[in-house]
Design brief:
With 213 residues, this protein is an alpha+beta fold. 13% of the residues lie in helices and 26% in strands.
């Protein structure tokens, strides 16, 4: 798998039978283990990305949706032009490359959102094959520490206080969905984090692999 200049120093692995936080970018291939529903890698991102996002209007939500090829740069025309935005462009292109190389797809569907509320606050499973999620600003995605729970009642009251793992800013998180091969009764149980009313907007990107037929 490709290398990247903004790598954090190697961290020890964290894992349960159904999720893993791996020490190296290349180790994200562990998502192909049939038992693993979540695989993540903690990294450092260019500080200028945070500087750029912090300088934006903190009350203006927005969403950018586009299709990105492995060698393509995202079109962020809805965001103000600035020198620091180049770092955001570069990182989004890098994430697209990660998904394309990992999944062998020709394109990815990219969604960059700046939001003031949790998009999906309840525990849920995506109706996708796999999704990459990374949070540039604000609280990160949460997933259940115990991914072996019964999916039929994941929103039952008894699960609301279950222990969970929260992604750090910049962390790359791969979430298997119910459409992953032989994963119909499974899928990563996760949710969007709560955002305090007086906090800055959360900026999160999701990328889905696309195959053209």
């Amino acid at each position: 798998m490709m290398s990247h200049t903004n790598l954090s120093e190697s961290q020890p692995s964290e894992a349960s039978p159904t999720w893993r936080r791996v020490p190296e970018l290349e180790d994200l291939v562990e998502i192909f283990d049939p038992e693993v529903q979540v695989c993540s890698w903690q990294r450092e991102i260019d500080p200028s990305i945070g500087d750029y996002l912090s300088a934006l209007n903190q009350t203006s939500e927005l969403q950018v949706i586009e299709t990105l090829s492995p060698a393509g740069q995202p079109n962020l025309g809805r965001l103000p032009a600035a020198t620091e935005r180049a770092s955001l462009d570069e990182d989004l292109a890098f994430l697209g490359e990660v998904v394309c190389e990992l999944m062998g797809c020709s394109e990815v569907g990219l969604r960059l959102a700046r939001i003031s509320r949790a998009m999906c606050p309840g525990w849920h499973i995506d109706r996708t094959s796999i999704r990459l999620v990374s949070t540039y600003q604000g609280p990160g995605t949460e997933w259940l520490d115990d991914q072996s729970i019964e999916r039929a009642d994941i929103n039952a009251e008894r699960h609301q206080n279950n222990s969970f793992i929260q992604a750090a800013e910049g962390e790359i998180v791969l979430l298997k969905g119910a459409l992953w091969q032989d994963n119909e009764a499974l899928g990563a149980v996760h949710r969007s984090p709560e955002i305090a009313p007086d906090s800055t907007l959360r900026t999160v990107v999701t990328l889905d692999p696309l195959w053209r037929t």
